[in-house]
């Protein structure tokens, strides 16, 4: 039988914007000793500003337009940011044959041209000779009709409370904080260093993230549970693999909300600290 105060705990948590799907998750949450975070949209805002456009033949504006059109069906934070930077409504009738390759980017037909927008991995997959880019930021390489067309450099910002949240979690006895990302290593390290995250793994495809979580589960602090926190874009498999999956924000995809054990109602990382504290308090009352 489920002790009554579990219901009170779940109810109290939900008033604080922390939805816990069952009393067993409340208990698991109280035992968490390692937390794995996804970067984009979880610790960073996932709202990228365009910081540079470097083209080969096309005008900057044309490159941005092709990117915005090719990305028009994606709900990835990168896509939303490119739409915003483009600033005009996108005429979807100009776009067809859209393919989104998770952790790589998108390919689509725009005005009859084959447009690819994504990272190094996408360019390699398509066999396109590209110029490696050394700018600090997330790089969207572009190819048009099989030829390299330039790149757009975008940068994301850390959420205002991320550093405080990591600090508070460590103080609350969380022994290990880990960040996983599909983004490139220099960006990943910069974010992790600034936040005081213990371990960081970059350039991971969604399947690599699942593998990483599996190996972290083998090596977690003894007796403790491992949580994964993500914003939901491509994160459903990792959310279900961790001892406890926490989906963040109303922006989270339906698949993530479904796969998660705990859903945070807003994007504030301090809600993670709150969730852990509520669960412990409740467990102390029960036992
Ligand atoms: P994260 O782990 O930071 O949440 P993702 O796994 O969603 O990142 O994406 C990893 C990388 O794949 C991005 O940094 C980007 O280079 C590329 N990528 C993914 N989706 C897109 C997209 N829609 N457009 C362009 N690039 C993308
Ligand atoms: Mg993500």
UniProtKB/TrEMBL annotation:
Compartments, as annotated in UniProt: Cell membrane
Domain of life where this protein originates: Bacteria
Family in the record: Belongs to the cation transport ATPase (P-type) (TC 3.A.3) family. Type IB subfamily.
Name of the protein described by the UniProt record: Cd(2+)-exporting ATPase
Organism of this sequence: Butyricicoccus pullicaecorum 1.2
